[in-house]
Write a sequence for this structure.
């Protein structure tokens, strides 16, 4: 039986933990709003970009630059794992890492060479336990303020296209957490290189008119594809950041509620212990008085 | 001018403009071009420069864009710009300050940092913007 003093300390400590989780929840809620707005604002660009690419790719047919057609083999795979910089966000990072691990293992089982690039600290930490030998590069997102990911997205895209041109890998897959809504973030694997024209993109009805391209299709595609990849990375970063905040908000909400339950249970225990002590003291006094 | 052209300008960060206009002049890589309503389908890359939006014969808006694409379909004109700013909203002094800040950032980077490329492009854009403002 813990003493009254111990119980009191315990309650105080849970109370301060609850204050922290509550504050984190509020901060995450505010950040979520901003991250969601940023993700929504970036959507028109990504959609139009996808439509333009689908349009161009369909008219270019099977041929096209290497970024679209592929290298013709699929021996070396680059897995890009995008996670958050910070933890305490429920299962957010763990889910992404789990999918990444499955993907890596199935690729290894198929006899492919796998390289891993990590974006965000948490994924690197968790994957370093069993796949540290596959790491090629890491992108740090911790010094990004607000939701200004465009510089990093372009830097990542540049790294990828450069590596691809140098023949460092044949296929690049991005694993990130797709933001469905506040309650659900779905870990998703998306092929970045060779670029895939999006399915279900709105087809623009041209009537019988013929598209004029300036410069020609090939040159346009070559200019468009790196940007398309950048755009995909940017939207993934924005979704991932919105998802991180949403996940943290939910996790902290649960933690706050748990703390509340815990405080209630501890208070009950404390009151019982206090009452027991009073009763004990009373019995002592009364039996003392009776003995006289 | 009965027929209007649907024009939208989007950058990765947000949609800057969407609406009906008379005439848009944009800086294509192979030369400036104008788009009116019922233009034939057309697609081109853009270079850094000013996109002018005309209402009748007067220039309503001047937007400085960096790179990107123009896509003309029967639905209208869409410009996808990597970066775009409305020239009416910015001041030369702010641009100068930003150029200076970006230069410092560039100096602080390692030689092989991949961000170097991005920042250099950004400086080129800002300098172009500065030039456009001076006119």
């Amino acid at each position: 039986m813990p003493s009254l003093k111990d119980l009191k300390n315990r309650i105080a400590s849970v109370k301060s933990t609850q204050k922290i989780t509550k504050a984190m929840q509020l901060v995450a809620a505010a950040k979520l709003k901003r991250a969601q707005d940023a993700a929504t604002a970036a959507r028109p660009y990504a959609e139009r970009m996808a439509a333009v690419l689908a349009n161009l790719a369909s008219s270019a047919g099977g041929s096209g630059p290497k970024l679209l057609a592929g290298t013709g083999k699929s021996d070396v795979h680059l897995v890009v794992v995008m996670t958050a910089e910070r933890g305490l966000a429920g299962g957010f990072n763990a889910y992404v890492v789990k999918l990444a691990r499955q993907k890596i293992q199935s690729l290894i089982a198929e006899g492919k060479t796998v390289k891993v690039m990590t974006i965000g600290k948490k994924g690197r930490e968790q994957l370093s336990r069993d796949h540290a030998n596959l790491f090629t590069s890491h992108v740090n997102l911790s010094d990004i303020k607000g939701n200004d990911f465009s510089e990093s997205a372009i830097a990542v895209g540049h790294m990828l296209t450069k590596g691809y041109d140098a023949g460092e890998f044949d296929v690049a897959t991005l694993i990130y957490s797709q933001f469905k809504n506040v309650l659900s973030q779905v870990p998703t694997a998306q092929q970045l290189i060779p670029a895939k024209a999006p399915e279900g993109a709105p087809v623009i009805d041209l009537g019988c008119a013929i598209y004029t391209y300036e410069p020609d299709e090939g040159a346009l595609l070559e200019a468009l594809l790196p940007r398309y990849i950048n755009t995909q990375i940017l939207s993934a970063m924005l979704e991932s950041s919105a998802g991180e905040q949403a996940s943290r908000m939910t996790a902290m909400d649960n933690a706050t509620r748990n703390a509340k339950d815990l405080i209630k249970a501890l208070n009950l225990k404390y009151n019982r212990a206090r009452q027991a002590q009073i009763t004990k003291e009373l019995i002592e006094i009364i039996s003392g008085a009776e003995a006289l | 001018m009965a027929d209007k052209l649907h024009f939208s300008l989007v950058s990765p960060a947000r949609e800057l403009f969407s609406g009906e206009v008379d005439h848009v002049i944009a800086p294509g890589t192979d030369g400036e071009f104008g788009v009116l309503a019922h233009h034939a389908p057309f697609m081109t890359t853009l270079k850094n420069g000013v996109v002018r939006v005309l209402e009748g014969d007067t220039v309503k808006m001047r937007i400085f864009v960096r790179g990107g694409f123009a896509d003309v379909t029967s639905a209208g004109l869409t410009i996808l710009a990597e970066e775009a700013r409305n020239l009416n909203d910015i001041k030369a002094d702010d641009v100068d300050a930003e150029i200076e800040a970006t230069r410092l950032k560039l100096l602080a980077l390692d030689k092989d940092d991949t961000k170097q490329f991005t920042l250099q492009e950004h400086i080129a854009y800002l300098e172009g913007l500065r030039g456009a403002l001076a006119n």
Notes: The mean pLDDT of chain A is 86.
